[in-house]
UniProtKB/TrEMBL annotation, chains A, B, C:
Pfam families: TRIC. The keyword Calcium does not apply. InterPro entries: TRIC_channel. The gene is TMEM38B. Residues 258-291 are annotated as: Disordered. This is Trimeric intracellular cation channel type B. It is found in: Endoplasmic reticulum membrane. Its main location: endoplasmic reticulum. It catalyses: K(+)(in) = K(+)(out). It comes from Leptonychotes weddellii. Intracellular monovalent cation channel required for maintenance of rapid intracellular calcium release. Acts as a potassium counter-ion channel that functions in synchronization with calcium release from intracellular stores. Activated by increased cytosolic Ca(2+) levels. Homotrimer; conformation seems to be controled by binding to diacylglycerol (DAG). One of its GO terms (cellular component) is endoplasmic reticulum membrane. Keywords: Endoplasmic reticulum, Ion channel, Ion transport, Membrane, Potassium, Potassium channel, Potassium transport, Transmembrane, Transmembrane helix, Transport. One of its GO terms (molecular function) is potassium channel activity.
């Protein structure tokens, strides 16, 4: 039982996120905020608004899970230490003279280290969310998955929503329609840890945390080095979608009839869109098949 | 007391919604979702987003009432049975080969049956909402009306809101400004059941449930057969509005002065709008009077 | 201890808001709503929607603080007296023949009296919010500031949000980016009362309430008489921003390099915006200096 492997993973699963990993998370989040065009100007014109946005970037996942569980969304403001930590990082990044931080952050190794540590915090958030949701709903495994997902990747939802309220919404940055890589991998991890929590997965949690974190960090760093926004999930997704929705071909072939039948619902342009998408998805699959 | 009529209504008010009426409700909701242009394409491109939208269409009213009462909006995910039921209906409707379901649903009798059963669930939702709100606020009859209304017709609000977040918002589908027929009839029912609950209406609940449900089903089916989106409420609304806001004529006649006086607030175009609307409402009333 | 001054401030801090000051608050809020172009037309077409908007204008701050603390947003509907009071004021203002109320309200003394009394309620709301938040989080002083701020000035946030949902959103009326005067002064008061509550400010609460209210009323009335939307805060803000973000000059001078370096993020237009804003802020500061 207490093999060196178990000791290693146990020690790993007991590491505290507080000082260093949280700092890395805040650093990456606020840098991502500053990369947005116009963010620096907002920080001058109205520092309070910029600070608020930075807090949303840093604590968005927790806020979303609080909203979904009807807990006070302001709870994240209650642990003053993290707020002050994130605020000071926001202050340094935005108002450091000749923004040395951005210059230092522009070196690749720093980015790799920070991104890797941020991915570690993701695992902790997912596990915390799953456990927290289980304390509410004993066997509501769907809720556990949702809360783990929200804690791990909900920041983007909150941020998009805030941009929507601010009026600076970019509909192509929509998180619902095309899931980003973090959303996908967090959903996967949330499912895994939920099944582990409900004893459907006969793996000890610390081993699972270690392996999942290693997977997260490895994929993230490889993606950053090779600069591919795409994901190693494509084949799995393709097989899964073919397994679940495998009759898309004949479906879409029948679809044209029913589309045209029910085309009184929308303008021609809007109804022509789905057909086009359908046909090109079909085309893609055909090309995949012919390979 | 135990007349056959009472026995009938009691038995009716004790019918469980669970298997069949819920199925009808999910069927109608998801079919309404699929009728939207582009919904089928979204279901292919990102099934998760489509599933989420379908769940919002099926459980929107409950989610809204949870939000208004600060209960976890994810509670609807906790009763796994209904989720799996709705999910399977969503799956069948969207991914059935040569979508047989849509073809079968396109027959009018099926639509009538499903719509009628969905209207039955509306009554149960209103009564549940009123009772639930009463457990929070003993004599907050406004809250009871609001919660009953939200449970019965809040799905459209949630759906519009989700479309807003998704960027696919159609402002002419706005639910606030022009209330749809379900919103109106649900508000009426919520008021009725609230007054019955606060003993201001000397009718036994099961009789009221039976009569209101019959009224709902009858109006819905007649509207579907005669294909009139308009409502048998027009005369009542007209008398009510004339009773409450009867001095619109002289009001609007004075309005022009004050409008022009306070026209420094907005651009000429925006201030000219209300006057135009006012005058044509006045015109309508005049024509009504002359008839 | 019981000097006449203390007796005066104690008696002042014990005045009840209920009948008169609340009426003034509702009057000012609903009149502000009616001043919006198109509001009167909405009140005719759909009185319910107009009533809902009026309630949001009257109780927005409380609703926002309820949302932030995960309390039922419908709680404001539970105290029926205030609802009926605000509803009757809404009814009188919108449907009074030859809208006498607007005509009477157009006299300056009436406006001054109502606005002054509304400012008094602001102090009470801030104190109530701070005390209420302290009952949740013992030493979460950030939460106390936020809740006090939300109760005092959150109505605009709720109103903007409602306009956003309604589709009638004006992005130049954005409350996040450029804080209005009420938002600023309420934030100041919330900070003051929070520090007084956490014993960091050695002033008795009733004195503080009296002085802050006098400050509120005086500034508000002077602003209304001199019709200046700008604030007596400009010099303090300038010194504060120069103290905190004083290196904006050299920051912005370096900024151009890093901007151009990281200009692959956005289109040229969007990245040129911040530089322009930065430079003109720098220009403004230079002119200020040269004076």
């Amino acid at each position: 039982m207490d093999s060196p492997w178990d000791e290693l993973t146990l020690a790993f699963s007991r590491t505290s996120m507080f000082p260093f990993f949280d700092i890395a998370h805040y650093l990456v989040s606020v840098m991502a905020l500053k990369r947005q065009p116009g963010a620096a100007a907002v920080a001058w014109k109205n520092p309070l608004s910029s600070w608020f946005t930075a807090m949303l970037h840093c604590f968005g996942g927790g806020i979303l899970s609080c909203v979904l569980l009807a807990e006070p969304p302001l709870r994240f403001l209650a642990n003053t230490t993290n707020i002050l930590l994130a605020s000071s990082i926001w202050y340094i990044i935005f108002f450091c003279p000749c923004d040395l931080v951005s210059q230092g952050y522009s070196f690749l190794p720093v980015q790799l280290l920070a991104a890797g540590m941020k991915e570690v915090t993701r695992t902790w958030k997912i596990v915390g969310g799953v456990t927290h949701a289980n304390s509410y709903y004993k066997n509501g495994w769907i809720v556990m998955i949702a809360i783990g997902w929200a804690r791990g990747a909900g920041g983007t939802v909150i941020t998009n929503f805030e941009q929507l309220v601010k009026g600076g919404w970019k509909p192509e940055a929509d998180e619902w329609l095309k899931m980003s890589y973090p959303a996908k991998v967090t959903l996967l991890g949330s499912v895994i840890f939920t099944f582990q929590h409900t004893k459907h997965l006969a793996v000890s949690r610390h081993n699972l945390m270690f392996l999942y974190t290693m997977f997260l960090v490895a994929t993230k760093i490889t993606m950053m080095i090779t600069e591919t926004a795409n994901v190693p999930f494509a084949p799995f997704e393709d097989t899964l979608s073919r397994m679940l929705f495998g009759w898309q071909q004949q479906f879409s072939s029948c679809e044209k009839k029913s589309e045209t039948k029910s085309s009184f619902n929308g303008t021609g342009s809007s109804t022509s869109k789905p057909i086009a998408v359908a046909s090109d998805t079909v085309k893609k699959k055909h090309t995949k098949k012919t390979e």
